[in-house]
Design a protein that fits this description.
There is one protein chain. By secondary structure, this protein is mainly β. Strand 4 and strand 5 form a beta hairpin. It contains 1 helix and 9 strands. Helix content is 11%, strand content 36%. Strands 1, 2, 3, 4, 5, 6, 7, 8 and 9 form a 9-stranded antiparallel sheet that branches.
């Protein structure tokens, strides 16, 4: 019995005293992911960044997408959103949205909701976000005159 206790104590002491070599990383995030909080026009100005002129908020996430301001109707089933801070890319038409913001100079934009209503966001400087009530999915939009 004493031998088993000594063997267990020896194995335990070796396990606790052994050092593990951690893997070396260049950083937590790959170089193409950049922190960009709080969201602002300047945060989206870089040419190599995700092109964005419309920002949605849904819960704790913000979603950026590009709706060309050319007066054409765009179905969000064919447009991808980048969700921050999770950096997840997915369809824009299957997320529940609380607020909509349009970058100044890209409006007015009209958004169609899953409830069948239309929400017009002027996209003027200082407007901030427009509340979607109750929160619902946004199915498509048209921006520009």
């Amino acid at each position: 019995m004493t031998n088993i206790v000594l063997l267990c104590a020896w194995v335990l002491s070796m396990a606790l005293s052994a050092s593990a070599t951690p893997m070396v990383r260049n950083g937590i995030f790959p170089s193409f992911l950049k922190a960009r909080s709080p969201i602002s026009t300047s945060a989206f100005a870089a040419a190599d960044d995700w092109p964005t002129n419309v920002v949605f908020t849904g819960g704790s996430q913000s979603y950026g997408l590009w709706v060309p301001p050319d007066g054409t109707w765009y179905d969000f089933e064919n447009i991808q959103c980048l969700g921050t801070p999770a950096y997840a890319i997915g369809d824009c038409n299957d997320i529940t949205i609380d607020q909509i913001g349009v970058v100044p100079g890209n409006g007015p934009c009209t958004f169609t909701t899953s409830a069948g209503s239309n929400i017009v966001v002027a996209g003027k400087a200082g407007d901030g976000f427009t509340t979607v009530g109750p929160p619902q999915r946004i199915l498509g939009a048209v921006c520009g005159s």
